[in-house]
Write a structure and sequence with these properties.
Elements lengths: L1 H70 L26 E8 L4 E7 L2 E7 L5 E8 L2 E4 L15 H7 L5 E2 L4 E2 L6 E9 L10 E8 H12 L7 E3 L5 E3 L4 H5 L1 H6 L12 E7 L9 E6 L7 H8 L2 H32 L15 H64 L7 H25 L7 E4 H16 L3 E6 L6 E4 L1 H17 L5 E10 L2 E8 L6 H4 L19 H11 L3 E6 L5 E8 L16
Parallel strand pairs: 15-17
Antiparallel strand pairs: 1-2, 1-9, 2-3, 3-4, 4-5, 6-8, 7-8, 8-9, 10-11, 10-13, 12-13, 14-16, 17-18, 18-20, 19-20
Helix pairs in contact: 1-3, 1-7, 7-8, 8-9, 10-11, 11-13
């Protein structure tokens, strides 16, 4: 008894020590994770702000260049009135990233708008660089002043923006940054080629706006000084666009400019967050933004020294116990709870092997009950479908009989009218169409009766292409103006065995389904061709398409996806029945958002010596 108590005390001490070590381990892990998570959130916010600032700066540069182009589209530079450019003053910032704008005419004149010591100067230069006239922005106005600045050896034709404009027809940002003509500033240029005769006409001039990376970097550091200042941005080639914050660079703009557009050669640091800016509003296609780890960084060996090796052993023992308890009891209980919450579903997680025997037996019982419920539901649906089909079969003969009686009256009246109007041959085509429509209505009623009470019909040799062409003439009026009907039919006959009215009924049903799938218009294509011993008809639309769940049941009777009152669910079921009645096959391929194609295949019949109608040649 004493030995047992000692063992209990020893086990208690071991468990207490292990618990304390585990608590220290969890505390250290949580502290480190919290610091890392906080730094990651700060870095993500800074990256988002950096991207927004970049997009805003480039948008302002683009707007300034477009405004200058608009104002100077009809005014030569030698006739420039500075008041014409007063509307540019709101775009000019004394400390923003836009530092200069240039307008160049191939005739030799150059207009410079550049910022000098936080003031904007507008100057007109000759081709040799000497200034002709100069103005300075004062209180929202351009005031003329004397400027002796002389730009020596400035050749616009050799500048990158001119080379870019020669090879592009549309305005845009140069995708690679470069150093400007001053040699110490660098950045991106928005370039507008001026061509009055279209994209292929000779270059008449260029409008270019420059974004200086140095002021943009200073503004980014100023905004992020309270959150995350170690952000870096690199070009795909590894050139520095935004260096990490450095007090020397922050206080010396010349040193900052020297640190830009140079290969990044600093020692590698652990990266907390890596992001690629691919906004279409940025000039570079792939700017890499890095957020190195800053602040507290606790190495792994310090954590091991803090909690000690007992944590490892305790964690292994506790983990083994928890894993065994979870595998035998907790996981099976979760599976059973899920199965009990959804007893009617056909899919469920069975109880895994290794569970407690009583839980395994209970899981098997629930699984069996779920399958029985699913089978019962399937049989109930099939029974309801068969009952509705039987109801239609019982009602169809009476409906067809009454309709045929009315058609007989109509045909008798047509016969009388035909005799009365025999002296008017110009009316004969209209009467023939009325006779044809009445006869076809009678044949359709016969087809409905055949569907409800299948009877062998009278099969004849039919040219599939001719039947499709004749049916298409009627469909064009039914489909509406928003749907384009295209026929791709061969010039040679495609002979099959069948009934013409049923074949027309198949085409009309498929075309009306296609029309309902294209509420905003589209294209309906009817194609027919022969493939050896089979004749194929394809009906393709550019409608909304069908998901897999609908496509699998599309030929089931009474199945429809239309709103109540708009569909019976018998159209495609009847089409499938009519196709199978002549030993044909029908398949459907569809994808949501990409349209639907029905493919009907019929056995080919021996050729019949009948001339092909001229209307099908070249359709």
């Amino acid at each position: 008894m004493i030995g047992l108590r000692k063992r209990w005390i020893l086990e208690g001490l071991v468990l207490t020590t292990a618990g304390m070590a585990l608590a220290g381990w969890i505390t250290w892990i949580g502290l480190r994770h919290g610091l890392t998570l906080q730094a990651r959130r700060q870095a993500a916010a800074t990256i988002k702000q950096f991207e927004w600032d970049a997009v805003h700066a480039f948008h302002r540069g683009e707007s300034l260049a477009q405004a200058v182009r608009s104002r100077l589209s009809s005014t030569p530079l030698d006739q420039l009135d500075p008041d014409d450019l007063l509307e540019l003053v709101p775009f000019l910032e004394n400390d923003g990233p836009i530092t200069s704008l240039m307008v160049y005419e191939t005739r030799g004149r150059v207009l410079f708008l550049d910022r000098r010591e936080r003031r904007w100067v507008l100057s007109l230069h000759r081709r040799d660089g000497k200034i002709q006239r100069s103005w300075i922005a004062v209180d929202g106005k351009w005031v003329q002043h004397s400027d002796s600045t002389f730009i020596r050896n400035y050749k616009p034709e050799t500048r990158p923006w001119h080379v870019w404009a020669m090879s592009h027809a549309q305005a845009g940002w140069m995708t690679h940054p470069y150093r400007f003509s001053t040699g110490y500033t660098c950045g991106y240029s928005y370039v507008i080629p001026l061509r009055s005769g279209g994209p292929d006409s000779p270059l008449e001039g260029v409008v270019a706006a420059d974004i200086d990376l140095a002021p943009f970097t200073q503004e980014t550091w100023r905004r992020s000084q309270e959150t995350y200042r170690d952000l870096m941005a690199l070009t795909p080639e590894g050139l520095v666009l935004l260096p990490p914050w450095d007090p020397k660079l922050a206080s010396d703009i010349q040193a900052l400019r020297a640190a830009l557009l140079v290969p990044f050669t600093q020692a590698p640091r652990p990266v907390l967050l890596r992001h690629r800016a691919t906004s279409p509003q940025l000039p570079s296609a792939d700017i890499l933004i890095l957020a190195p780890i800053q602040g507290l960084h606790v190495p792994l060996w310090a954590g091991l020294a803090f909690v000690g090796l007992p944590v490892l052993a305790t964690g292994l023992l506790l983990g083994l116990f928890v894993w065994r308890h979870h595998r035998r009891i907790m996981a099976p209980l979760a599976d059973l709870a899920e199965a009990g919450a959804h007893p009617g579903q056909a899919a469920g997680r069975p109880v895994k092997p290794g569970a407690h025997p009583h839980l395994s037996a209970l899981g098997q019982s629930l699984d069996h009950a779920r399958h029985v419920e699913a089978d019962h539901r399937t049989l109930q649906q099939r029974l309801e479908t068969m009952q509705r089909a039987g109801t239609v079969g019982a009602l169809a003969p009476g409906i067809v009989h009454d309709a045929n009686n009315q058609l007989a009256v109509a045909m008798g009246q047509l016969s009388i009218v035909t005799d009365l109007l025999k002296d008017y041959p110009e009316l004969e085509p209209f009467l023939e169409k009325a006779w044809g429509a009445t006869l076809r209505c009678s044949e359709v009623l016969g087809a409905l009766l055949a569907y409800s009470r299948p009877q062998p019909g009278v099969l004849t040799d039919l040219d599939l292409g001719l039947v499709v062409h004749q049916t298409a003439e009627m469909l064009q009026r039914v489909l509406g103006k928003g749907i384009t009907l295209h026929q791709d039919l061969p010039a040679v006959p495609l002979w099959i065995r069948g009934e013409q009215v049923k074949l027309e009924q198949i085409i009309v049903n498929l075309a009306l389904n296609a029309r309902d799938a294209m509420p905003h218009g589209g294209k309906l294509a009817l194609r027919a061709h022969g493939t050896g011993e089979r004749i194929v008809l394809e009906v393709e639309d550019t409608g909304t398409g069908m998901p897999e769940s609908v496509r699998a049941r599309v030929f089931e009777p009474f199945f429809t996806t239309k709103a109540p009152g708009r569909g019976t669910g018998l159209g495609l079921a009847m089409v499938a029945s009519l196709v199978q009645a002549v030993q044909g096959e029908i398949t459907v391929t569809s994808e949501e958002g990409r349209g639907t194609t029905f493919r009907l295949s019929f056995p080919a019949a021996p050729p019949v010596d009948v001339a092909t109608p001229a209307s099908l040649q070249g359709t």
